[in-house]
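Project standup — Tuesday

K.O.: blocked on the structure for the chain from last sprint. Re-posting the sequence here as requested.
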Amino acid sequence: MSHDARHSCSVCSPIPDSMQVETLHTPERLPEAVDKLEIIGGYTLDGQVRKCPACGAWFIYTHDHDSQSGVGYGYTDEGIYRTTATAAKERLEKALERAQKSLAEFTKSEPRDYYASMAESSAEEIKRIEKELKRFTS
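H.V.: unblocked you, prediction finished:
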């Protein structure tokens, strides 16, 4: 995506190329536009892959919370980073493997009613990731 196209996007133009904030002890927040990005897959600690629904730009969103086990102040960091389609695809392939393993574990774990919603969430994530990965090959 060109620099001009990024800044003219109605959804993601307010999002900088890279931004990290500490939200537990500061008033800093990521731009509201981050919440408008489509969540494709991945865990927020490792980097969740998100996509702009308007222009197709790729982002990595991170969220890390540490309570310091009650012995310190703790922190909550959030970050958003623009990335390339190639890097997003690589992360999605890894996220797909992880989601498939999670689904397999959740469907055989007891108590089944407790793990059913987690299995459903993993299955939905797998569908989203597979849909995007197909777009890379077509």
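K.O.: great, moving the ticket to review. Residues 70 and 76 are 14 Å apart (CA to CA). Residues 3-137 form one domain.
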